[in-house]
Q: What sequence folds into this?
């Protein structure tokens, strides 16, 4: 008389943005005697666990925390500077191009601009901090900095602009 042994191993992992992923493996085998049940169950469990753990490490697509949500319209509260504004620095992690990062930092430094003010303007206009801006958004921020500097007076053109610097 053959004995059927069915084993299943499943694992679910939580991911950022209220997301998760799961992987499961099941196997069915026949045993000739009941003497092998304990040994075979242990062997299958170890094998299934090893395979599931190896496969679940590849998460695939992980949505951002605001995935699928519409951007709310700016409110009066959004125009005031938050108390937790992170100053702009040259630390890694910028999403724009290295040249854009360099130009933004150069404009701030050479023209004595307030880093927190630039960060606040970025959050008002793009709903994210300077470091999180993509290339297109960073270009818009650079344009905004140039425009503000040029509107003050001809003598207050940004130094990078006067020297013929390019974005």
A:
């Amino acid at each position: 008389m053959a004995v059927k042994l069915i084993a299943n191993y499943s694992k679910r992992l939580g991911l950022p943005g209220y997301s998760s992923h799961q992987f499961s493996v099941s196997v069915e085998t026949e045993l000739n005697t009941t003497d092998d049940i304990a040994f075979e169950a242990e062997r299958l469990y170890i094998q299934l666990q090893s395979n599931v753990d190896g496969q679940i490490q590849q998460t695939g697509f992980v949505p951002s925390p605001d995935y699928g949500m519409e951007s709310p319209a700016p409110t009066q509260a959004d125009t005031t500077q938050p108390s937790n504004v992170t100053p702009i620095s040259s630390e890694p992690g910028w999403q724009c191009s290295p040249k854009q990062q360099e130009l933004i930092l150069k404009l701030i430094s050479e023209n004595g601009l307030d880093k927190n003010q630039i960060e606040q303007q970025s959050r008002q206009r793009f709903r994210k901090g300077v470091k999180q801006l993509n290339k297109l958004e960073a270009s818009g921020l650079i344009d905004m900095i140039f425009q503000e500097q040029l509107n003050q007076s001809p003598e207050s053109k940004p130094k990078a602009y006067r020297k013929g610097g390019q974005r």
Observations:
- The helical segments are 37-55, 76-79, 98-110, 115-126, 135-152, 159-162.
- The chain has six helices and two strands.
- The mean pLDDT is 78.
